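Dear colleagues,

As part of the handover before I leave the project, I'm documenting each prediction I ran so the next person doesn't have to rerun anything. This entry is a single chain, and its sequence is reproduced below.
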Amino acid sequence: METGLLKREVRRAARGDRDAAASLFDHYHPRLYRYALAKLGRPADAEDVAAETFARVLRDLDRFRWKGAGFEAWLFRIASNLVVDLVRHENREGADEVTEEMEAVGPTPEQLAIYREIGRELDALLETLPPDQREVLLLRFAAGLDTEDTGRVMDRRANAIRQLQFRALQNLRARIEPQVEAS
């Protein structure tokens, strides 16, 4: 969403305009969901995080200021904090089992099996990365944030984000190449 339009929609939503709030929701909800799903691996939890993020954003929108981090950074920081809270709560409850669900309608059972296997392999590869490298890849590719907004979420400069992303992709490539050569 273009910056001028985003600012107008945020101001309108802060004044209680339901259409503006719906526009923000429609634009950001899919990205928030993908980000949370990539972090948590469970569609129901990802949906809960995306919905709760918007509930908090709409509740606190009148207090949001355009100083410092932008709207996207604020939005994804809230989502990131909710993911951390959920994981901490699960760990306290002893529920560290991850269930895999696909809520897609249409793919064949064979395609679903392939998607699940690829997802498991990708998750396993991402888990081998240091947490900051994993986070930068999720924010950049699952959430679709640019380097500036990713930097705001992670409290780093855009150049540091680009370097971190480069190292993360190098690490993934180094882990994948031996597997490809072996097959």
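The mean pLDDT is 81. Residues 3-182 form a domain with the Rna Polymerase Sigma Factor; Chain: A fold (CATH 1.10.1740.10).

All the best with the project,
I.
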